[in-house]
Write a structure and sequence with these properties.
Radius of gyration: 39 Å
Structural class: mainly alpha
Largest sheet: none
Order of helices and strands: HHH
Helix content: 40-55%
Shape: rod-shaped
Length: 144
């Protein structure tokens, strides 16, 4: 008697090996692609937030535009003021559309602010001259 088992059953078990791959080895980036994509999306979002944060602060931080006429009097001076504001808005829109650099945008906003100041000054001056409002005079106190 040669062996207790049938032929082939008394062999040693083979080593645990993975399946044979006949193709090229897998790329080390294959498992990292989702991570790289997530990082790329995060970078794009961060850049968008940074651009938004560094963007112009908006009209609320500029020269105040009157919503109602001074002394509640609607006259030609009020309409002139409103038309000056509309003209300044249109010019700002055109200047910003043509702007190629950040310096151009700053200059456009500076010009817009100056036009708003001039329009308000002219309107206030006309209303003072017509007697609708009085210009407040500053008071200086010297000593105690």
């Amino acid at each position: 008697m040669v062996g207790v088992f049938r032929e082939g059953h008394n062999k040693r078990p083979g080593r645990n090996r993975g399946p044979i791959n006949f193709g090229p080895p897998p790329s080390p980036w294959r498992k990292r692609v989702p991570l790289v994509a997530a990082v790329a999306v995060a970078v794009v979002l961060a850049a968008g937030v940074a651009i938004k944060v560094n963007a112009h602060p908006g009209r609320e931080n500029h020269v105040h535009v009157l919503k109602a006429p001074l002394a509640g009097v609607i006259n030609n001076y009020w309409y002139d003021y409103r038309s000056d504001i509309e003209e300044a808005d249109n010019e700002l829109r055109k200047d910003l559309r043509r702007a190629k650099t950040e310096q151009d945008r700053r200059e456009a906003w500076a010009e817009y602010n100056q036009e708003l100041r001039d329009a308000r000054k002219d309107y206030t001056q006309e209303m003072v001259e017509k007697g609708y409002i009085t210009r407040s005079r500053g008071e200086v106190i010297v000593g105690d």
